[in-house]
Amino acid sequence: MKMSLIGAAILLVVLVPLVILGGLPFEIGVAVIAALSFRELAALFKKKNKLPLIMEIFSYIAVVVITLSLESILQAIALVIMILFVPLIIFKKNEYTFNSATSLLGIILFIGGIYHTVINVRLDSIWELVYLLSITILTDTFAYLGGKSFGKNKLLERISPNKTIEGSLIGLIVATSLSTVFYLFVINPGENIILVILMTFVLSIIGQIGDLVFSAIKREFDIKDYSNIIPGHGGMLDRFDSIAFVSLLYIVIKLLLL
Q1: Structural domain boundaries of the chain?
Q2: pLDDT tens across 25-69, in order?
Q3: CA gap 215, 251 in Å, rounded
Q4: Mind listing the pLDDT tens digit for each residue in 168-217?
Q5: What are the helix (H) ranges across the chain?
Q6: What is the rounded distance in angstroms from the CA atom of residue 228 to the CA atom of residue 124?
Q7: Do residues 149 and 171 lie in contact, with contact meaning Cβ atoms separated by under 8 Å?
Q8: Cβ distance 255 to 32 under 8 Å?
Q9: Exposure pattern of 111-134 as b/e (b: 16+ CB <10 Å)?
Q10: What DSSP element (H or E) covers 72?
Q11: What is the model's pLDDT at position 118?
Q12: Are 19 and 26 within 8 A, CB to CB?
């Protein structure tokens, strides 16, 4: 518990000023988080694939480029694809394969894409980012507290043995209620209340799904945490798994409905 509190304090001290400042400091901070997140998945990748040092360096650069490519994301992706696949003609088959390049591309696009989205949300509005963070934090916190107090039925025991249906529902209800109020009072008081409730409800569910997806990956590789970079909390992907899925879906909803 003590280490968890220390880790939470470190995150708050580092992240809150960056979110408030926005602009270049926020973008650099997110790019660093993206690189550290890639490092965690790359460590798993290297358990089953060979990754030449030069390709690993290119991969870090590619993640940062996609994360920060606010005006030229398609060009950045095209460049990354070329960087990853052209070396196939240079390396021997057992050193770097087409399957390795394809898997690496998927990891880079996923990590770069989710953090690129987070930056875009902050560029639009600090309050929209706070809204999304409130959904993930409230869902996770009250799902944990609700599960501890009232949990009896396991949600998906084979993936995450500590999560319960009761906890999940409590987190969903609290996050939907409080985050909806925040959106209607702070972001857009004139928005259709039913639409905001449904949007927040779905985003809370997606946040929990994101958490389960990353838990399933850990199960696949038989690890407890992605890393130990955050005291008492594990790795970057252990803390930012929910916001990844939530921010991606929010951008889609915003483009289509808001």
Answers
A1: 1-124, 126-258
A2: 999 999 999 999 999 999 888 888 888 888 889 899 989 989 998
A3: 24
A4: 999 999 999 999 999 999 999 999 999 999 999 999 999 999 888 888 88
A5: 2-21, 23-48, 53-68, 73-85, 98-124, 126-150, 165-182, 193-221, 236-239, 241-257
A6: 32
A7: no
A8: no
A9: bbbbbbbbbbbbeeeeebbbbbbb
A10: none
A11: 92
A12: yes
In this prediction, residue 48 carries a pLDDT of 83
Tell which residue, 53, 32, 14, 25, has the closest CA to residue 111: 32
Predicted TM-score (pTM) of the model is 0.88
**Amino acid residing at 152:** K
In this structure, what are the phi and psi dihedrals at residue 228, rounded to the nearest 5 degrees? -120, 30
Lookup: tokens for 97: 């394969």
Angle between helices 73-85 and 53-68 (to 10 degrees): 170
Instruction: Answer yes or no: is pLDDT of 157 > 80.
Output: no
